[in-house]
Amino acid sequence: MPKSKHDRVTLSKTKKKGREHKELIVNLIREAVENYNSIYVFSFENMRNFKFKEFRDQLKPTSRFFLGSNKVMQVALCGSVADEITPGLYKVSKAD
Hints:
Low-confidence stretches: none
Strand content: under 5%
Helix content: 40-55%
Mean pLDDT: 80
Distance between the termini: 45 Å
Number of helices: 4
Structural class: mainly alpha
Order of helices and strands: HHHH
Largest sheet: none
Number of strands: 0
């Protein structure tokens, strides 16, 4: 029996975050680079995982997590030696 078409959600009603949102993330990451002395890059399979949430809560007062697209993060962390904010920062942007 075919599925009902009434259950579908049209994606055209969702709003795109746009360039302003990406620029905001880039600026927040660059401010965090100046305020914090360490950067850790990691990947995970399930962002909604309860253990990840516990980990974030434990580090919340002293740390900052940024979740986003790899390209936006690379732009924020400067992709080349000439553009870097702090020495050696370009190495972090190349990490996958």
